[in-house]
Input
Amino acid sequence: MVAEGIHSVVDTGDGLLLLLGKRRSAFEPDEEHPFGHGKEVYFWSFVVSILIFALGGGFALYEGIHSLRNPEPIEAVTWNYAILAAAILFEGTALLISLRHFRKSGPAKGNLFKRIVKSKDAATMAIIVEDSAAVVGLLIALAGIFLSTTLEKPIFDGISSVAIGLLLLTVATFLAVESKALLLGEAAQPEVLRQVETLLKSALDIKNWRRPRSMHFGPENILLVVEISFHRGVGLQDAEKSIEALRKQIHEQCPEVQWVYLHPIGQSRME
Output
């Protein structure tokens, strides 16, 4: 129960940090951040993963090992059950709400785990993973108390705390890896790049192009750079019109692509 109590405190603090990151990521671009502040949410998601690892998982492991070395009978069992039941209800409700939001806004293809991994919305991803871990952790705590009191072996309380600690360490590692990848600048999803290439193929004035390069500056804030070459005979004014039309099409077809740079180069450089 102590391990789950600390986990709940950390979970609450993490939610506030993710809310802070979400709000700061909505700041308008400025001179120091010309592409916006979208990566704020990735930074705070990484901070959340560190807190879960150090405070949540670390303390649960410490408490579990201490309980294994010095097992003590559980007191006030009824209150423990009541608190855990209420916590499961609250955390389960929060998880259902976050999953409902994710199904509307997240990637559409693949199972839930693959969709979470593919998602660039670090805040929603962190909330879903945290809430899922919270529900599983509460069930583990419930099982530990039940076995400890039913079998009269307090050692199960320590085992459940260790299991909760390992669960939180696993979740923290997963969030850290995903947040790190986004902080370093992950490319847009292949589906988005395929849409861009389809539009490039449909542009009559464009002869060739290099593979589009992209980077996420936020869940709905993608930078796209494409080097293109025009057919011989295409004048400067026609090239400018073609670039502007293509840029508009990309914005319409891929609204998450906020920044589009189409850079004309000679055909000789393309080869």
In short: The chain has a mean pLDDT of 86.
